[in-house]
Specification:
Number of strands: 6
Order of helices and strands: EHEEHEHEE
Strand content: 25-35%
Strand order of the largest sheet: 2-3-1-4
Radius of gyration: 21 Å
């Protein structure tokens, strides 16, 4: 399973807003539900799935602005393809959140602070 960070950039549009184009792209992504998982972020869209399917999806969403009259489109793609274990968007977030919890809660790491010195003691 791979995770793709993709940004579709319509060039030469009449205005500066791209939200209508983003909404159209997400209509195409809905057609792939069951094969992919996706998440809109403020700056891009994250898509998770098998790599051959992701390439198909990327091609489909790259075409969306052209279908709406845009004459030039730049698409930025970043692929995280981990093959030693299954990696998901949720799993990656959970790993970071676990590390953050360890930093804010010493009991989660098996350490405790002594009251007098502030030094950590391994349980």
């Amino acid at each position: 399973m791979a995770i793709v960070d993709v940004t579709i950039i319509p060039i030469g549009t009449e205005g500066t807003s791209v939200s209508a184009h983003v909404a159209e792209v997400h209509q195409v992504l809905k057609q792939y539900e069951g094969k992919i998982t996706y998440q809109l972020t403020p700056m891009s869209t994250l898509i998770e799935g098998e790599l051959p399917v992701l390439f198909e999806v990327i091609q489909a969403i790259h075409e969306v602005p052209f279908q709406h009259g845009v004459k030039r489109v730049a698409t930025n793609i970043r692929i995280d393809d981990r093959r030693d274990k299954v990696a998901t968007m949720d799993g990656k977030l959970a790993a970071v959140q676990g590390k953050l919890a360890e930093k804010t809660d010493p009991a989660a790491t098996g350490e405790k602070q002594t009251e007098e010195s502030g030094a950590s003691i391994q349980k």
